[in-house]
Specification:
Order of helices and strands: EEEEHEEEEEEEEEEEHH
CATH topology of the largest domain: Leucine-rich repeat, LRR (right-handed beta-alpha superhelix)
Subcellular location: Membrane
Strand content: 15-25%
Mean pLDDT: 73
Largest sheet: 7 strands, parallel
Number of domains: 2
GO cellular component, one term: membrane
Shape: globular
Strand order of the largest sheet: 2-4-8-10-12-14-15
Membrane topology: Single-pass type I membrane protein
InterPro entries: Leu-rich_rpt, LRR_dom_sf, RLP23-like
Low-confidence stretches: 59-78, 214-237
Number of helices: 3
CATH superfamily of the largest domain: Ribonuclease Inhibitor
Distance between the termini: 101 Å
Keywords: Glycoprotein, Leucine-rich repeat, Membrane, Receptor, Repeat, Signal, Transmembrane, Transmembrane helix
Length: about 270
């Protein structure tokens, strides 16, 4: 297979292939789409030569629309799902004839995501969801052609890269169900991606009114958003104290031994 220098589309999706990913996976010179999703591959994502594919690396590549209708057999269908805040699952389907992407989702891959993968300037679609990947997500500023990024359902941690909002072509983002932490300012423009960060207990997404998203817990040094300040907390304390005192008195006089002790002490 490594001798297929003109290979453009490689799809082995939805099978039961297992084993580790080969080191030559991303070295095809003309490769445009790799889809190995829905298998049983394990181990690490190869941290090898990411410079093999011109399509993956050329950020200035011009993909012209075909002058005649594209045969359906040459189309590439991409599907992804995004769970939004209200619990509804939105399914997005794409039928693309010229997209450049990598889909390794729904496998058993673990370890860190190679930094070279985040430096592919020509990549438009990257889906690594439903694996066991960990580590931090490094800067994505070089991936200016990126349109879809799905890293959901992994064990990634650390802060969300602050430069994602600068990716003007990005239309779908999903970082849900990981272990990200920190504070995301509303100025970052992440409101464009509803539900993209749910399932990260240590992550605080600032809402339009300046408060932390109630669905997440913050991890900002010196600031705790789960504590209640002001008159509300004082009122709760007073009610709690009164209820405790009331039940203590009732319990005391319902006990004959305690009642006799109080009466003997008084008289």
């Amino acid at each position: 297979m490594t001798k297929w220098s003109n290979l453009k589309y490689l799809s082995l999706a939805g099978n039961s292939f297992s084993g580790t990913l080969p080191s030559w996976l991303l070295t095809f010179g003309s490769i445009q789409m790799i889809d190995l999703s829905g298998n049983k591959f394990f181990g690490f994502i190869p941290d090898g030569n990411f410079n093999g594919s011109l399509n993956f690396n050329d950020g200035d590549i011009v993909r012209r629309m075909p002058t005649e209708p594209v045969d359906a057999s040459h189309n590439v269908e991409i599907k992804m799902s995004l769970l939004v805040v209200d619990g509804n699952e939105l399914n997005f389907g794409y039928r693309l004839s010229s997209s450049v992407g990598i889909d390794l989702s729904d496998n058993m891959l673990h370890g860190q995501i190679p930094s070279g993968l985040f430096g592919l300037q020509g990549l438009e679609y990257l889906n690594l969801s439903y694996n066991f990947l960990d580590g931090q997500v490094l800067g994505l500023e070089k991936m200016w052609n990126l349109r879809t990024l799905d890293l959901s359902h992994n064990s990634l941690w650390g802060q969300i890269p602050g430069n994602i909002s600068s990716l003007k072509n990005l239309t779908l983002l999903n970082f849900s169900y990981n272990s990200f932490s920190g504070f995301i300012s509303k100025e970052e423009g992440y409101w464009r991606f509803p539900g993209a960060f749910i399932g990260n207990p240590g992550l605080c997404v600032e809402s339009s009114d300046g408060r932390c998203n109630a669905a997440s817990l913050p991890a900002v040094p010196g600031k705790s958003f789960d504590e209640m300040d002001g008159p509300i907390s004082v009122w709760i304390f007073c009610v709690s104290a009164f209820v405790s005192f009331y039940f203590s008195v009732i319990t005391l006089f319902c006990s004959s031994r305690a009642r006799n002790y109080v009466l003997q002490t008084k008289f």
